[in-house]
Amino acid sequence: METASIPSPAITADFLPILGSDHIEFYVGNAKQAAHFYQSAFGFQPLAYCGPETGVREKASYAVGQGKIRLVFTTSLDPGSEMALQVSRHGDGVRSLSLWVEDAREAYIQTIARGAVSCFKPQMQKDDRGFIWKSGICLYGDTIHTFIERKNYQGSFLPGYRPWNPRFRAPEAGLEYVDHCVANVGWNQMNPWVGFYEKVMGFHNLISFDDKTITTEYSALMSKVMANGNGRIKFPINEPAQGKKKSQIEEYLEFYGGPGVQHIAMATPDIIRTVSGLRDRGVEFLVPPGYYYETLESRVGRIDEDLRAVRDLGILVDRDEEGYLLQIFTKPVQDRPTLFFEIIQRKGATSFGAGNFKALFEAIEQEQALRGNL
Questions:
Q1: How confident is the model at residue 88 (pLDDT cuts 50, 70, 90)?
Q2: CATH (residue range 177-371)
Q3: Per-position b or e across 296-313, b if 16+ CB within 10 A of its CB
Q4: Could you report the per-residue pLDDT of 222-257, keeping only the tens digit for each?
Q5: Is the predicted pLDDT of residue 348 greater than 90, yes or no?
Q6: Residue ranges of domains in the chain
Q7: Cα dihedral: 295, 296, 302, 308 (round 10)
Q8: Which of 329, 323, 322, 330 is CA-nearest to residue 356?
């Protein structure tokens, strides 16, 4: 399989119109502490809370936002619940990739008819600010898609939540929207999940990378990027490939206890300012190998940003036919080497930084070696 862009198919009718990413929900061991970390480290702002004080007895959830990004951190209050067992299996991780749709009931009907497994049937939730409809289907592992229809709701987040206005508010970091979310699945499971997104969700394969493209001396992986009809939602899917040593995907699968969301890419209009601020707040980033910047200018050409600042911050740069992009990756944000974040700035480029793969994965392997997992 060669690496190549695959032209988008002609779409006559999108049976699953998606308006955008609604929110990403994490199941965590301590939602209050997780929410504080994402506020202080990444500049997210408090939005809403639900828990015993709002009449919700089984969990506590904190919603935070920045730009168009909304994250929700949820903890079970029952140590024997399935939610608590999932946190025990996986550690802190993404439970729901929630999608903003025009009609959550129709989204459920259409995806179930095409083979999706139901997580929960359409349900209406309401309070004095209006009502929403939501429904859910199962994905890889314990991950789900939740369809959210909110056109009849005017509240701070969702029914059952109340506005959350703590005294502490960290400065925002310049993060604007979710660019893409990446899944790690097991051996020989990439193509079945590509088929799921094609058949069940109406997505198309935007681009593919084989194990000759995403490889280092020690490890390799394969990846396909799935995109919805209007191109607003992109889900790359990774699987391991044979290599001399354990790949980053294998390490993730081992420590997460199965497939799940590997990383979330968040876009910024000024990556130098954003990354500088995040480093000052304590966010740790991967360090690319020293040789990377020796040929950077000859490989990508002139860029608007100060090359010295790009090098000093460890930012990666790649170019395609449409322009260039700048990107950088955090180290895992919890003790298990699982979930991490990407900060990305697109200057016209629509690709995913293929020219940076080797340097990125060598940086990841350095961290794996320190953990004794390479």
A1: very high
A2: 3.10.180.10
A3: beeebeebebeeeebeeb
A4: 889 999 998 899 999 999 887 766 788 899 999 999
A5: yes
A6: 18-163, 177-371
A7: -110
A8: 329
